[in-house]
Amino acid sequence: MGIELINDKKKIVLYLNTILIISFILVIFVNTSYFFEKTVFGEHELYSDLKLIHNNFVDYLANKNPYEFDSNFWPKGSIPPFILKTFSSLGKIEFQIVKNYFIVLEIISLILLLYYSYKLFPLKKVKYLYPLIYFFSFNFSNGSSVMFGNDASILYSMIGIGIIFLYKEKILIFMILVLIASLFKFHYFLFYFLPFLLYGWKSLKYIVPFFLFIILVYFFSYLADKELFNSWLDILNVIILRNINNPWAGVDITQIFINILWYTGQNLNINLYPNYLISNIFWFLFTFISFISIFFIFHNKNINNEKKLKILSLGILTITLFYPRLIFYDFFLIVPVYYYLTRTIRFFEDKNKNIAAKFILFLFFLVVQDSHTAITALSLLFFLIVYSEFKNNDPLLINKKIS
Question: DSSP class of residue 121?
């Protein structure tokens, strides 16, 4: 009787995996067809983000304000002023040449990102399939990012290599690489949570001075050119504005909170849309409480490499989930993390519930195609981990004794 039950479960798992694989192949076909139809032979422009950045340099050299909106009310650029000044000489070079150099950097970055995936995470079972998973999961997010020519792939490759060094306890190298990325995009400083989660309070001797240095760079940039800096802040305020109709609003957890309130208010015929201050207070409080809670629950001084990888993965998942403006450029590091955690974690003691949970998580990861897919999948994974820990199931097996 027991053997028959085991065989039935194996058949169910095989059936579900077959559904996932076939559905994922269909997703690859649809996304690839769309790419050729709309981008290669259609009206969509490759490397449009890179062109905007190049135009910023051209405008700056021509003494024009690069932080404005075009005729379609689309922001012309949002790179920090000191980065704009440092690389402004690129505006003297033709865009095609800049694009060629960028493509080389992007190829190197993608190789480094795949190296980060294979180096840290056990991907043997999907060793050959993984590149497809990397580019086509989460609604083709990584593939789209590469096509738009955003600098995210380059910056995340630096952070990815830094995470490898962090795993090897070379904290200083990690801090330097995150520092460089944070000078381009301030919110990357959130990755300084990782050494704190892994190595505890002793890591603050690295985190505090590096974070203060980032603040000082931005502050001196303000003093150097207040008008330019304020123009940059103005355009950032519009881009990150918490508004239901804002086309640049991300799909981060704060925006989900706002949308839930707004739609609830619509059904009750009252205005429940929170203002900017309340939204930011929610983000700061919820993020702070979550990060501190994760630290005290999962931080462990005596861990082996396997447990360290699980804690590190949980940290990357938490950071990604709590980005202040989560968009499809932000999934270069999370793909191997999501696969690894979903595959290895025991969410429920009951095997049937465990199989169902993993199938749903992989379904959102590989098959469901929607702009809210990623935040849904990440939230489900995060809260399943929290729920399992709350039920004392020790989902990451962190509190088990090292054998």
Answer: S
Q: Give mean pLDDT, residues 67-83.
A: 73
Q: In which residue are the tokens 């077959």 written?
A: 18
Q: Is the pLDDT higher at 299 or at 342?
A: 342
d(CA 229, CA 219): 10
Residues pairing with 75 in the sheet: 69
Of 286, 136, 295, 326, nearest to 201 by C-alpha is 295
Lowest mean pLDDT among 28-42, 124-138, 319-333, 338-352: 28-42
Identify whether 94 is part of a domain: yes
End-to-end CA, the chain: 34
Helix (H, G, I), strand (E, B) or coil at 75: strand
Judge whether 114 lies within some domain: yes
Classified as helix, coil or strand, 397 is: coil
- Closest CA relative to residue 375, chosen from 252, 215, 288, 200: 252
Residue type, 97: I
Mean pLDDT for the stretch of residues 150-169 = 93
Q: Is the pTM of this model over 0.85?
A: yes
250: in domain: yes
- Residue 375: give the domain boundaries: 45-390
Residue 191 in contact with residue 211, Cβ under 8 Å? no
DSSP 36: I
Distance from C-alpha of 18 to C-alpha of 105, rounded to nearest angstrom: 37
Is the CB of residue 382 less than 8 Å from the CB of residue 317? yes
Q: What's the structural domain count of the chain?
A: 1
Question: Is 321 within 8 Å of 257 (Cβ atoms)?
Answer: no
What is residue 249's predicted lDDT score, i.e. its pLDDT?
63
Domain for residue 347, yes or no?
yes
Distances in Å between the Cα of 182 and the Cα atoms of 190, 262, 347 are 9, 32, 34
Q: CA gyration radius for the chain? A: 22
Block residue for tokens 């799909």: 251
- The residue behind tokens 């790419």 is 35
Give CA–CA dist 346/370, Å, rounded. Answer: 27
